[in-house]
């Protein structure tokens, strides 16, 4: 079976089943012996992502979040408690668990459209306003990622990452630009919802208890 056919087949599965599997995987990663269980879950999710045709660059970005989290915890532990030992293990545990969550839910989002994810959340008794907010977050995370990728490509063409100092400056500018785009997108979404009659209150359908 080709990757495209496998991806289409997995994407066609019930969103409730995929969401349940993702939550179960995260529970196993958090409750199992650390860091072995979390790293195993992350490795299996990476293999599944490659099997359905996910790009290597996307997977590396997901793992980059885990690496940053682990290094940040290791650095903070060393600064706040320099006399204590075992900082590397705490960073490893956090990094592997973040990697498990990022790879599992990244795969879920890649194979599940936002509207199907909302239906799955509602089936799991998640309040409708929260489900809608999560769906919007998933949808616009992709939009912001594309905007950041476009800005980074423009920086590379202008030699924005030539040298450590210039690279750090360009990275800060990229983060600021992405943050501004996020606020702009939130404002535009709020105006669009207001134009459609949304006033911040969720009215349940007739016959459904609030």
TrEMBL record:
<keyword id="KW-1003">Cell membrane</keyword>
<feature type="transmembrane region" description="Helical">
    <location>
        <begin position="92"/>
        <end position="111"/>
    </location>
</feature>
<dbReference type="InterPro" id="IPR051611">
    <property type="entry name" value="ECF_transporter_component"/>
</dbReference>
<feature type="transmembrane region" description="Helical">
    <location>
        <begin position="59"/>
        <end position="80"/>
    </location>
</feature>
<dbReference type="Pfam" id="PF02361">
    <property type="entry name" value="CbiQ"/>
</dbReference>
<keyword id="KW-1133">Transmembrane helix</keyword>
<keyword id="KW-0812">Transmembrane</keyword>
<dbReference type="GO" id="GO:0005886">
    <property type="term" value="C:plasma membrane"/>
</dbReference>
<dbReference type="InterPro" id="IPR003339">
    <property type="entry name" value="ABC/ECF_trnsptr_transmembrane"/>
</dbReference>
<protein>
    <recommendedName>
        <fullName>Transmembrane component NikQ of energizing module of nickel ECF transporter</fullName>
    </recommendedName>
</protein>
<keyword id="KW-0472">Membrane</keyword>
